[in-house]
Amino acid sequence: MNDVNKAMAVFHSHIGGKLLNVVPMLLLFSLGFVLGMTSDSKFPNFYLSSVASSPSPAPLPPQNPQVGLARFLEPPSVMHNMTDEELLWLASMTPKVRSTPYHRAPKVAFLFLARGDLPLRPLWEKFFAGHEGLYSIYVHTDPSYTGSPPEDSVFYGRMIPSQKTMWGDMSLVAAERRLLANALLDLSNERFVMLSESCIPLYDFPTVHAVLTGSNTSFVDSFVNHDSEVRYNPFFADRSNITLAQWRKGAQWFEMDRALAREVVSDDTYFPAFREYCAAQPSCLMDEHYIPTLLSLIGWRHNANRTLTYADWRIGEVHPQTYGRDDVTEDLIRKIRGGAGSGRNCTYNDGANGTCYLFARKFAHDALEPLFRLAPKVMGFG
Predict the structure, then answer these.
(1) Which residues pair with 193 in a beta bridge?
(2) Which of 353, 106, 110 is nearest to 255 (CA)?
(3) From CA 333, how far away is CA 330, in angstroms rounded?
(4) How far is it, in rounded angstroms, from Cα 361 to Cα 328?
(5) What is the Cα–Cα distance from 32 to 30, expressed in whole angstroms?
(6) Please, which residues bridge with residue 200 across strands?
(7) Domain count, the chain
(8) Residue 127: closest CA among 215, 195, 217
(9) Residue 233, number of CB atoms within 10 A of its CB
(10) What are the annotated GO cellular component locations (predicted)?
(11) Tens-place pLDDT, residues 10-36
(12) How far is the C-alpha of 202 from the C-alpha of 381, rounded, in Å?
């Protein structure tokens, strides 16, 4: 019995004591398991706070959604923070594959070069009404302009990042290139129309869209004008090898296709020379020479050498005739549509066509009311 007592004493001293230490741990573990089966509201506060402070496991990375071609072709926002250099570089890109793997209606980009408000905006809104998806609008205003069309207007949110312009200066050409570049970012834009705040449409939208998208040429004034040779300077020959024989003149209000628009925005050979010249020559009037001369320099053949925007220069001033409220009549609009005073051949795709002009300028602010009244009867919209 003494031996048994000794064995029990050894068990208690070496093993029994350790079991007593383990028992509380087992009880705590059991308590935690039971509490885990209940709601979080029954957890002790100290336990919940320790859980909340512990780092959560990293979430699994989300699966990248598939982005198809349709998403890629969505028109980009007109607001961005690109510099002109970045914008022109991006807009100059073109796919090498000639055929397109998608089908979309060709759009006409309407580029408005304005000081601020568009006083004839209600007339243009009637013109665009019901033809969504067939046009894009881009507006370049003075950077100081803080106004905005109403939210229900097609012009709302269409002002691009702009810079200051001056009459007769190369800053106007820079604004034209800026408008073209923004419009080129929308791959559905196939034709590009430069307009001012004093321009009006002479026909309804379907007619304008059909004439422009159906043409195999651009419509840019680019002609030899001996009276304008006084504006040529040997500086151009020294700076960029532009000769007098290559010198051209024309109205800045153009209608061009996508291929020519890319040529204009990607020109980094001749544009710097014009800009440098105008920096030392206030009112250099190069807005009438840069694009017409560029077409001559690059040998552009797909051009009708005429504009589709009418202006009456017969008064012999530095600005064309301005039409006010009392000037706007049915007879005036019909004469302009018929090519009054153009003195040019209004052929279309190498064939006879009666459409000499699609747009006209300059119309004053107070001409809106009679224009609005004549639009349904004469222009075919409204």
Answers:
(1) 110, 255
(2) 110
(3) 5
(4) 12
(5) 5
(6) 360
(7) 1
(8) 195
(9) 15
(10) membrane
(11) 444 544 444 444 444 444 444 444 444
(12) 10
- Please tell me the least confidently modeled range out of 29-43, 289-303, 353-367: 29-43
Any domain includes 99: no
38 token code pair: 């209940």
Q: Which residues contact 133 (CB under 8 A, 6 or more apart)?
A: 105, 107
Range of the domain at 370: 78-93+104-379
Q: Which residues contact 204 (CB under 8 A, 6 or more apart)?
A: 127, 379, 380, 381
What six digits make up the tokens of 350? 């190498």
Q: Is 37 contained in some domain?
A: no
Indicate whether 333 belongs to any domain.
Answer: yes
Q: Hey, which residues does 249 pair with through a beta bridge? A: 223
Residues 133-152 have pLDDT tens digits of 999 999 999 999 999 999 99
User: Can the peptide bond before residue 126 be classed as cis, meaning omega within 30 degrees of 0?
Assistant: no
Return the structure tokens found at 34. Answer: 């039971």
What predicted TM-score, i.e. pTM, was given to this entire model?
A: 0.80
